[in-house]
User: Fold these one by one.
Assistant:
Number 1:
Amino acid sequence: MRKLLELRDLTAGYGGGAVLRGVDLKVETGAIACIVGPNGAGKSTVFRAVSGLLEIMGGSIVVDGDRIDHLSSADITRAGVAQVPQSNGLFPTLTVKENVLMGGYLIRRQRSLVKERYEQVASLYPVVRERARDKAGNLSGGQRRMVEFARALMLDPKLVLLDEPSVGLDPIVLAQVRNAILTMNQTGKTVVLVEQNVRFGFGVATEGIVMESGRVLMQAPAKELLENPEMGQLFFGGVIETKGAADEDELADVC
Ligand SMILES: Nc1ncnc2c1ncn2[C@@H]1O[C@H](COP(=O)(O)OP(=O)(O)OP(=O)(O)O)[C@@H](O)[C@H]1O
Ligand SMILES: [Mg+2]
């Protein structure tokens, strides 16, 4: 199978030594992969390195066959990588439409293309059209997530990085966000998400990745990892129920 994202022996940090210490991981084209691990494991740092927000110290990052680790973050965006950051990244005083259009800044001079893309993402996430003129700050947490996803899709990326999309959401809304991630994937996007909520993350993902202390400890099909008692005992304080991964109602029960 073709790999859309490959990290090979990646070392990166923030100046005070390496945070990522030889990370190897592979994500197949069309997959949904989920990275889990304790606070400070380096999950968001992986995303920052892939997005070019952090200079790497060693190893390589390959997207769709091309090395991107020495490109600027703008060129990495052009190469097809979009990131939805961990904290709420919408501008609360701008409208939903204005926020979504900002995602198209690199194509802003191609006005008909911007319009076409906006219509596409608004069709995928109806809240964009329904609340287009409302200030983003007035949306609920789940609605904000959809708008963030829509904005990330404006440049038609190959790879979408979602940092903790489940944070702060109640079970019903989680089921909607899960569907929104599946929708994104069905339009051909390869998705990598980082999650604290293991059941949510591995429930939506095809591939699971476990990180600890700047390294990848395990990578396997998400379903297999959910059933792996060793993982539950090692990192997440007990057995992880596999119930709820299969369908929305069940998911709402366990998350
Ligand atoms: N801007 C920064 N400058 C210096 N150190 C940082 C910076 N951002 C993160 N770190 C450190 O890098 C390590 C990994 O952080 P990272 O944010 O990647 O963890 P994480 O796995 O995403 O954790 P969380 O689950 O809390 O989001 C931590 O020790 C953190 O303190
Ligand atoms: Mg993080």
Number 2:
Amino acid sequence: MSEVSTEEFYDDLASSYNDIIYRCAPRYEEMQQTMMQYVPGDLQPQRILDLGCGTGNLTLRVLETFPGAHVVALDLSQEILDVCRRQCGEQRVSYLQQDFSDLQLSANSFDLVVSSIAIHHVDDLTKQVLFQCVLESLKPGGVFTFVDQFRGETPGIYQQHMKVWKTFADAKGVPPEEWQMWMEHQEQHDFHATVHDQMKWLHEVGFIEVDCLWKHVLWTLLTARKRT
Ligand SMILES: C[S@@+](CC[C@H](N)C(=O)[O-])C[C@H]1O[C@@H](n2cnc3c(N)ncnc32)[C@H](O)[C@@H]1O
């Protein structure tokens, strides 16, 4: 198994990502739709940050849901940002190549920060620093909502998650080499943490209204709000 960085992995996957993700992530659209349904009605976001935007599938959904908003699409991989740019255009989106482990964001600058299946790429300590950084980048009353892959509370639950995921992938006709690619990627670049720990970290950095809005197998949607 050859070691590649997360950046190289997504650079290589950029052009095929949209074909692959729908058959590899169960209920991919549903998790993003649910995220949008739960953005509080009083928020009316004007400036939105998408962390780990990838090819821009969530970015597009955010643009559609909030037609008056401007989105900053941030990712580590330049190749995938280029695909995102082709998919989402220049008019209401700006693009930032940054690493979650060294985010440079202006304070009090976003009403809403979203993320889909991206934050598990950094280790647990970096996640906690990232949560702090997101809190600082939000305006008072701003919302952070993200869906991601989470570890089970016990090794048994986590193992069962992996089995259920494999059954889903088999039913979708995912070829063995593609499954193998995800498993190698998971071994090299994924740091799944539990729902309990991540909700605790969100509280610890100062978020309020922390809640779990949706869950299916590994995939879990959390929300949190900055005090007004
Ligand atoms: C599974 S994709 C998800 C893309 C998109 N959000 C979606 O839901 O389809 C994960 C994305 O996170 C980005 N990513 C991974 N590690 C990152 C890091 N340390 N900093 C910034 N982006 C990162 C990858 O480049 C990739 O585009």
